[in-house]
Amino acid sequence: MKAAQLPEWFAAFSRNDKHGLSPLVQRFIADKMGLPxxxxxxxxxxxxxxxxxxxxxxxxxxxxxxxxxxRIKRWEDERLTNPDIEKxxxxxxxxELLQAQLEFRLFNWDDYLEIKLSLPSEPIHTNGRWDAAxxxxxxxxNLDDREQAxxxxxxxxxxxxxxxxxxxxxHFGSVxxxxxxxxxxxLWRASLNTKQAGQWEAMLAGLKADTSVVGSLDAFRFxxxxxxxxxxxxxxxxxxxxFPRELLKSALTKPTPAEAK
Length: 261
Hints:
Layout: H1 6-14, H2 18-32, H3 51-62, H4 66-78, H5 90-102, E1 112-118, E2 125-126, E3 129-131, E4 136-142, E5 158-159, H6 165-172, H7 179-190, H8 194-205, H9 213-219, E6 231-232, E7 235-236, H10 242-253, H11 257-260
Helix pairs in contact: 1-2, 1-7, 3-5
């Protein structure tokens, strides 16, 4: 997945929009297969529109993999001393493989790799080591043995967000979004189309620290949204404006360190 695609994936997850997520999955797989995205998806992609069917298909594939077979052998050995241990699920094997990719492991080989990334502030998420003195994220590792075919490539990541203190103080009275919450807001904001972005920015421009910011957030809706969320079986439809409204209201009502004492 490309970094530019993260906002639309985040938007689908934040709205709990399974219908909106399925086309993203289909497009992602088609792109990996080299299929033209301008044409209709092949009929074989239909199963990706149903989350349960897609999960069953993935599990069926995973049990045939060498990684899962090796995991089952380990489970059988573990049962000799722990008979009650549950049999690993195919989905758990995928999580283990994903975790292995995200970790920057150390290996005892001759080739050595060092990567440094200079940042304005400490990263929110990273699998590297933050060097506060030099304001750098550092990754160090001996390189993997290429004969180990099951090992995924080395993967380094870091994410960060810098708050616009002047803007937040003018409109909210203080800096209310930093770190994780600011990163989530930025991902949501980047997912808006041109029309939605204009409406959101117009609302923000009218917010003043000495007025009812919460009231303005409660009243805001995009022009294509109903006045309120509508009840449905199993919960409510989530609007595109629900996520930032809840995020900002929560940040505004959170007590400051002085108030919390």
